[in-house]
Amino acid sequence: MAPLTGILVGMVIAAFDFRINSIDLIADPVGWVLIAIFAGRLAKTNRWFGWTRAIAWTGALFAVPDMFGLDTQGLIVVALALLQAATLFTLCTGMLQRLGPEHPASRWLNVLRWADVIGTAITAIALPTVSGTTAGATIAGIMFILVIGTAVGFLVLAITLRDHPQLQAVA
Asked: pLDDT tens digit string along 112-166?
């Protein structure tokens, strides 16, 4: 399996919760481990993929209590959201460096990584201060659209580029 394909499978597993009685049927830690393993295959080609691997192992640890619904304060959910944003940023950065600035996908990878950072920062800073208000609902809605947009955009780019020679593991 191509490294980006494995990373994508891991991202989908980690991003979606299929729960019955608060127990996640498709364990998020499995998704994070897949991301770590396949990013590790690319780590020799670019240091940013090494960062992706480290972030993913951290995500796997944080996802264990979340898998069983044990996060009563929401801290683990916040940590996982930050880790997901960092994963996307490091992946996009590694892909940008491997493909080079002249590649047609480079502009979109750059837009996606910074949209993700901006969206995460706005959510982390603004949303807690306006939670429960109309402004909070508006910000939450905009951020939801931004998150879905960046995720879909990344999936499309990664599927398109998954067999690109610059994004393959070193033998």
From this structure: 999 988 888 877 777 667 667 787 778 777 877 888 888 889 999 999 999 999 9
Tokens of 83: 């880790």
Q: Could you tell me if residue 28 is left (phi over 0), alpha (psi between -120 and 50 degrees) or otherwise beta? A: alpha
> Please, which residues bridge with residue 20 across strands?
23
Tracing tokens 């837009």 back to the chain, one arrives at: 111
Furthest-apart CA atoms within the chain: distance in Å: 54
Q: Whole domain around residue 17: which residue ranges?
A: 3-167
Q: What is the dihedral of CA 48, 52, 57, 62, to 10 degrees?
A: 130
What whole-number distance in Å separates Cα of residue 70 and Cα of residue 62?
11
In 10 A of CB 122, how many CB atoms? 14
Structural domains in the chain (count)? 1
To the nearest 10 degrees (0 to 180), the angle between helices 75-99 and 106-130 is 160
pLDDT in tens, 61-76: 998 887 777 765 677 8
